Amino acid sequence: MSYYRHILVGLDLSPESALVVDHVQELFKDRDVRISLVHVQEPLSFAYGGDVPMDLSDVQTQMEERARTRLDEFCHQLGLTTNDRHVVIGQPAHEMHKFAKDNGVDLIVVGSHGRHGLALVFGSTANS
Questions:
Q1: Residues 110 and 20 sit within 8 Å (Cβ to Cβ)
Q2: Residues near 9 by Cβ (< 8 Å), separated by ≥ 6?
Q3: How far, in Å, CA of 15 to CA of 20, rounded?
Q4: pLDDT tens string 76-95
Q5: pLDDT average, residue stretch 94-99
Q6: In this predicted model, what pLDDT tens digit does every residue of 42-87 receive, in sequence order?
Q7: Of 40, 65, 105, 123, which sits most exposed with the smallest number of CB within 10 A?
Q8: What is the dihedral of CA 97, 21, 5, 89, to 10 degrees?
Q9: Domain assignments of the chain as residue spans, ordered by start
Q10: Cα separation of 4 and 27, whole Å?
């Protein structure tokens, strides 16, 4: 059986994220494993697809701060420090792969938007 040393847990911060954290806690609570909680936030400019008539940097900063606060709650639940939580700006699948490669991650765990059956296992970001 292989032994994981560093696990990336990708969280979209939806209500289902708490379930992912609960499962990670149950699976790895007695193991000597490093866990990194990662939330990838797409830039607001992606949502508008072009020139935006206003500066969204303040809104983006507020969203990043809210994401950090939520990740801090999950860190506390898992007994992790804030050094183990990361908010990254970009495209989720790409940024999680990049984080994994740059940080020696052995396993990537992601949930999928409250789906059931095979869709639970194979979500769009999970497939990437």
A1: yes
A2: 20, 21, 24, 35, 36, 37, 38, 109, 110
A3: 10
A4: 988 899 999 999 999 999 99
A5: 96
A6: 887 665 555 655 677 888 899 999 999 999 999 998 889 999 999 9
A7: 65
A8: 30
A9: 13-127
A10: 11
